[in-house]
Design goal:
It comes from Fusobacterium necrophorum DJ-2. With 178 residues, this protein is an alpha+beta fold. The protein contains 3 helices and 10 strands, in the order βββββββαβββαα. Strand 4 (42-48) and strand 5 (53-61) form a beta hairpin.
Length: 178
């Protein structure tokens, strides 16, 4: 199938998102207008302590008008690699650094309406440092035993994907069978 991209116009822009309207020619020759968001890359970190607890954050999310429990995450800055952003965000939001980093995966969060790419990392060998929140960040750091995660009513896709990946990986299965 061939799609032809004709004209893309920027409709709105701020620090987080850009809204585009683009004219496309479909494989059947019909021309349509498509609106989508261009979003900066996001990193998210599944940070595990030595005793198999997860470092999570709870913060108010205005779009859904409630507190939200999720793994630490943030935007990738210009000219920053995703791993660098993950290390920065983990320490800024939680006050932890990690000795061991493993990339879990990258994915597009909602490819039908956004080009925003998410990068998930596993962080181990945690060391407590100091939190460095931005002036508009108000969050609570929580340490939750991994075996208790299913009790929580998680609604955050990046957290769910990270947990599923880890729980299905052989390292977790081996650890729990000892």
């Amino acid at each position: 199938m061939k799609f032809k991209h004709k004209e893309r116009k920027e409709v709105f822009r701020n620090d987080v998102v850009t809204v585009y309207n683009e004219n496309l020619i479909l494989p059947n020759g019909k021309e349509v207008s498509w609106t989508f968001t261009g979003k900066r890359e996001v990193v998210a970190i599944l940070a595990l302590t030595e005793n198999q607890s997860v470092i999570m954050v709870e913060q108010y999310r205005p779009a859904i008008r409630r507190e939200f429990l999720e793994i630490p995450a943030g935007l990738v800055e210009e000219n920053e690699l995703p791993l660098e952003a993950a290390k920065r965000e983990l320490e800024e939001e939680t006050g932890y650094q990690a000795n061991t980093w493993t990339k879990i995966c990258s994915y597009f969060g909602s490819a039908g309406v956004s080009d925003g790419e998410y990068h998930l990392f596993l962080a181990k060998g945690l060391k407590k440092t100091q939190q460095h929140l931005d002036e508009d960040e108000f969050l609570t750091v929580k340490e939750i035993p991994l075996h208790d995660i299913s009790v929580y009513d998680l609604h955050d896709p990046k957290s769910i994907i990270a947990f599923q990946y880890y729980l299905l990986s052989s390292s977790y299965c081996e650890d729990t069978n000892k």
